[in-house]
Amino acid sequence: MSNRKRIAIVGVGLIGGSMALQLHEKKLSAKLIGVEANQEHAEQALEYELVDEFLPLEEAIAAAEVIVLAIPVNKMVSLLPQVLDRVTDQIVFDMGSTKAALIEAVKEHPKRGRYVATHPMWGTEYSGPKAAQRGAFEGKAVILCNTHESDPDALDWIKKMYEKIGMRLVEMEAKAHDLHVAYVSHISHITSFALANTVLEKEKVESAIFEIASAGFESTVRLAKSNPEMWVPIFLQNKENVIDVLTEHIDQLTKFKESIQSNDSKGLQALIDDANKIKRIIK
Amino acid sequence: MSNRKRIAIVGVGLIGGSMALQLHEKKLSAKLIGVEANQEHAEQALEYELVDEFLPLEEAIAAAEVIVLAIPVNKMVSLLPQVLDRVTDQIVFDMGSTKAALIEAVKEHPKRGRYVATHPMWGTEYSGPKAAQRGAFEGKAVILCNTHESDPDALDWIKKMYEKIGMRLVEMEAKAHDLHVAYVSHISHITSFALANTVLEKEKVESAIFEIASAGFESTVRLAKSNPEMWVPIFLQNKENVIDVLTEHIDQLTKFKESIQSNDSKGLQALIDDANKIKRIIK
């Protein structure tokens, strides 16, 4: 890991920008080259010194030893094959929230080995380069998918890079990844969006309803501020798993509703006793 | 507010214990007398010096100038009339999460005027005297209900007391209160309990599912650690409002499900754009 590398970051927003800060901070980068379709974001990223310069995609790929993709997952699926078309021996990795469709899209690509599929389990409800944070990703899990399809040298560099950032490596097949994240990430965003809509609808007739909102409400609703450009493609790409978890979650809510409707205090107690077992996971 | 008062706290748990700390800290109490059915909690409360002594309820009422009720709302409904039976000119207030049933229970009581119905909008997912916090309630809203039914001197002392603690006073009729809290507090707890159960059910077949859970998941699920002894009676006492908000919330989740199922990215974008309006409320 002694050699710093020239690294191109495609998409310098919350995730790409936070990654840029870490790559610089951990002395992993010799140079950071941004690629950004959004001109305002590019200007902000330079102002915050997230990257050294911006280049068009082709020039950035040619100038870099490592290429990071941190763009919405629908754009990733079309862009990754094009990036691989242009690489020689560079390492390419993505930081997206879904994995099966992306890995499928490059399955037969002659440069498949240069690509490592990754998903660091960190984010916030904010977006854009302004939202980039120092020290992001540290102490969190990063999932590496279908590592047997990557070249050993590329995989080796990616693993050491994430370890240097302070992440815990978890290996998983893409399908298992997409199922797991539906349950511990995607559903949390949907419940939060839906809860915001539930209360905002009520506000139309009860205008002072938020006046008394407390920390508990804020905690369950904060993810509702998340960016649709990022989340719509995630839900659609992970459609089957997301529908499954949503169906199960609606069933669980219906159990609460039925217990309350029938004044079944013992049933309600049992449902909450079950839910309290989350204490084993969340301290 | 120069005179400190002898104050009895019935129920020295998370809420009663945190109130005891504030009453002492803000120099509102001359003496703090605890009343506690749970012997272990009483011992812990003395160990943490939350109150000066414990007395049986009748003796505590006789010895106090102010009586605070901080017990589950089902117990409150049966206890409040009994407490009012024994007061002469003491001030009685409760800190419960539902108000209509409680106020109805003492509507015709000859000592109704001595009682002030209050609900400070603060709590955590923990319970018992160990969970009591210094500085609790500060900067939050406290709802006072049906204040026209309380004697002016009692209401006046309660208002000054909450102001001294640093709370923002909001007056509301009991029915409006119960509707509002269903939307900004009770539903958050139900979604959190149901989300915990959804993922804990999945864990039975996917044992490593929590290994990759991140801060977003934790935020939406932390209220699922809340105590059933407190929450079962709240949901049942506020049944009609809770059923209404649950029905609406399930409808909102179903909209997400249908948009995803039909690959309706514009519909999904519109739902998330709506939810993003919560930024106006939650900074």
UniProtKB/TrEMBL annotation, chains A, B:
Listed GO biological process terms: tyrosine biosynthetic process
Domain Prephenate/arogenate dehydrogenase: 5-283
Pfam families reported in the protein's UniProt record: PDH_C, PDH_N
GO molecular function annotation: NAD+ binding; prephenate dehydrogenase (NAD+) activity; prephenate dehydrogenase (NADP+) activity
Oxidoreductase in keyword set: yes
Entry annotated with the keyword Heme: no
Keywords assigned: Oxidoreductase
Name of the featured protein: Prephenate dehydrogenase
UniProt source species: Niabella soli DSM 19437
